[in-house]
Structure formats: structure tokens, C-alpha cells
């Protein structure tokens, strides 16, 4: 009896991982909207690429755009920094605390996710100049 249950659990585990990732993506979108959206300026978040305790989210607001690096801690997700194309560079991810392997994997995953987006949307992510470290609870109103 245990073998069929184990087989069923193993067969469903990829589905559980997808569901978990979707839940994490929604949490990140809600967090970013809560922190940065204004009534006169909605925030469009996506794609959101999650890898373990780190994520990169593309965002657009008015005529601006960029990417946010987030980290999951004991109290949930928080924005670590905002940047443009430099968040595609594994070196930027390493400087934010990811190890070499994780930074390379996350960079590749972000590029893959963005390759499925309209080119004009991805171009807007590059509009963010520099790298801005975001303190816990701080917003990037001057992006």
C-alpha cells in the first residue's frame, strides 16, 4: 500500500513545485504593489523569477521600469535592491549575497522568463539607471 502512495507523491511533486512557485510569485507581486504602487500610478509587476530564497521581478510604472532583487527571510519577501540590466549580470547577484552557482542560474532563469515577454516591455526594464539598495520597508519612489 505504501508503494502506490509514494509513487503518487513522487508523480505530483513537480506539480506542487509549480504551485509553490506561483504562490511565491503572487506574494512578490502583492508586496511590490503594496510598497510602491500609488493611486495615480499603478505598478505592473512581471515576470517574477523565483529561485530558492531569491527572486528577480521586472516592473513598470508610468514610463519607467526596472528590476527588483528580492530575498525571502523569516518574515517573508523583501526588496533588496532595484536596478536595470545589471540585475542580469551574475556579478551583481553575487554582490547581493548569492553564491556563484545560484547567481548564474538565477541570471539565466531571468533571461529565459524575459525572452517570453514583449520586447518593448523588456526594454523598459533597462531604463532604471544604477543600482539602488532598498532598506527594509523603504520604497524606490525616485526610480
What does this structure look like?
The structure is a single chain. The protein is of the alpha+beta class and 143 residues long. It has one domain. It has four helices and five strands. A five-stranded antiparallel sheet has the order 1-2-3-4-5. Strand 3 and strand 4 form a beta hairpin. It comes from Pseudomonas entomophila. Keywords: Signal. This is Copper uptake system-associated protein.
Write the layout of secondary structure elements.
Blueprint: H1 2-36, E1 43-51, E2 54-61, E3 64-73, E4 76-83, H2 90-95, H3 100-115, H4 119-125, E5 131-133
Antiparallel strand pairs: 1-2, 2-3, 3-4, 4-5
Protein name: Copper uptake system-associated protein
Keywords: Signal
Organism: Pseudomonas entomophila
Please sum up the structure shown:
The chain has 143 residues and is of the alpha+beta class.
What is the subunit organization of this protein?
Answer: single chain
**What share of the residues does DSSP label as strand, in percent?**
25-35%
Largest sheet, in brief, is:
5 strands, antiparallel
- How many structural domains can be distinguished in the coordinates? 1
Order of helices and strands: HEEEEHHHE
Specify the overall morphology.
globular
The secondary-structure class comes to alpha+beta
| Total DSSP helices | 4
Strand order of the largest sheet: 1-2-3-4-5
Radius of gyration based on Cα positions: 17 Å
Through-space gap between termini: 58 Å
Q: Stretches where pLDDT falls below 50 for ≥5 residues?
A: 6-10, 12-19, 137-143
Average the pLDDT over all residues and give the rounded result: 86
DSSP strand tally = 5
Estimated helix fraction: 40-55%
